[in-house]
Design a protein that fits this description.
By secondary structure, this protein is an alpha/beta fold. It has a domain of 255 residues: Rossmann fold. Strands 4-5-3-6-7-8 form a six-stranded mixed β-sheet, sandwiched between helices. Strands 9-10-11 form a three-stranded antiparallel β-sheet, with no helix packed on it. A two-stranded antiparallel ribbon has the order 1-2. The longest helix is centred in the last third of the chain and has 24 residues. GO terms for molecular function: GTP binding. This is Neuronal-specific septin-3.
Length: 414
């Protein structure tokens, strides 16, 4: 018998699995079925009926839709920085997971553009920064501020005479200056305190300073409780108080301790050792350690306070800053030629003390800390901690401040 060859059985063609989000719409969805327009580059489904919004990220219409078809990504309308974000990593796909464990939508949404929006708005409006300098006459307070902001914002630039006599009591002098860098405008107000600690009897010489700080809080509070409030309340609150310690090399004076103890709960105090070039490096390190120990024993908390650290990263960064404080600084607004470069410095018989050289002093650390890393945090701590403390106290004292209408304001001015 001949072998019987069974008829050849042809395998059935495999039916491709239906991708998610393709097919009949769910009963709760108002949208029609979509084709493989997302990520596959096969085609784009028909647009939904008029009046039905297109879900964000479903078609990637960042630049009219043409560029987004091949990638299924899109670039976000009007965001100059999102082009690079959309092609980095996994093409910038945003994933949206429903709470019920449903399907995942891929596509660029544009959430990251909020940073660019905030930047543009800040650049338009600008912002305020108010800094107070406190210390004896002759410690270089005005010079240090000029050096920090590379501008003539000291009291001398306001037309005050160099031979002006020391006031008999502490006076409060403020001068404002608009600084612009990289398109960002900042209204810098420097509050000077001539006469502080210069008298034979310095009892309660911190009271005018404390009164000034609270007056700025009160001014802001009254603007806040007005019925017709300004869209942007002028901010004259003191965001930072730099306290200048004399480079004695011994210890803090009683006045230093008393001032910082009384004002540390109402303003951000940053202690600095002035004219650090009058001490050797060994003397400077010993003096810094002694000052830190005395501040700790007196229970004085300077900025950045430990209880305001938001997370472990902040704590790690701020611990390094606290270990380096008080910064031993040298200020100068004069330039000298050193090794073919123009540098800010102080000329001595032994050479040039370079202000921004970390081997000579700690001015660069103070500048980076004050301006480049913690300026915004200084403003936030002032508003959220010190101002809120004052606000709560005032409202509790008066049983709540009554809102001031525009008519009341006009009557009070008459």
């Amino acid at each position: 018998m001949s072998d019987v060859v069974p008829p050849e059985v042809k395998p059935k063609p495999a039916v491709p699995a239906k991708p998610p989000n393709v097919g009949a719409p769910s009963p709760s969805s108002p949208f029609p079925p979509q084709g493989q327009g997302i990520g596959g580059g096969v085609g784009v489904s028909a647009p939904p009926p008029s009046g039905i919004p297109v879900p964000i990220g479903s078609h990637g219409l960042g630049h009219g839709g043409s560029h987004a078809i091949g990638h299924g990504v899109g670039h976000g309308a009007g965001h100059g920085g999102s082009h690079a974000a959309a092609h980095s990593g996994s093409h910038g796909h945003a994933t949206s997971h429903s709470s019920g464990g449903g399907s995942t939508l891929l596509g660029y949404i544009g959430i990251d553009t909020i940073i660019e929006q905030m930047r543009k708005k800040t650049m338009k409006t600008g912002f305020d920064f108010n800094i107070m300098v406190v210390g004896h006459s002759g410690l270089g307070k005005s010079t240090l501020v000029n050096t920090l902001f590379k501008s003539q914002v000291s009291r001398r630039s306001a037309g005050w005479a160099r031979d002006e006599k020391i006031p008999k009591t502490v006076e409060i002098k403020s001068v404002s200056h608009v600084i612009e860098e990289g398109g960002v405008k900042m209204k810098l107000t420097v509050v000077d305190t001539p006469g502080f600690g210069d008298q034979i009897n310095n009892d309660n010489c911190w009271e005018p300073i404390s009164k000034y700080i609270n007056e700025q809080y009160e001014k802001f509070l009254k603007e806040e409780v007005n019925i017709t409030r300004k869209k942007r309340i002028p901010d004259t609150r003191v965001h930072c108080c730099i306290y200048f310690i004399s480079p004695t090399g011994h210890s803090l004076r009683q006045l230093d301790t008393e001032f910082m103890k009384r004002l540390s709960h109402s303003v951000n105090i940053i202690p600095v050792i002035a004219k650090a070039d009058t001490m050797t490096i060994e003397e400077r390190q010993e003096f810094k350690q002694r000052v830190r120990k005395e501040l700790e024993m007196s229970g004085i908390e300077f900025y950045p306070q430990k209880e305001f650290d938001e997370d472990m990263e902040d704590k790690s960064d701020n611990d390094k800053i606290r270990e380096a404080m008080p910064f031993a600084v040298v200020g100068s607004d004069k330039e000298y030629q050193v090794n073919g470069k123009r540098v800010l410095g102080r000329k001595t018989a032994w050479g040039i003390v370079e202000v921004e050289n970390p081997n000579h002093c700690e001015f660069a650390q103070l500048r980076d800390f004050l301006i480049r890393s913690h300026l915004q945090d200084l403003k936030e701590v002032t508003h959220n901690i010190h101002y809120e403390t004052y606000r709560a106290k005032r409202l509790n004292e008066n049983g709540g401040l009554h809102p001031i209408s525009s008519n009341d304001t006009q009557e009070s001015n008459l």
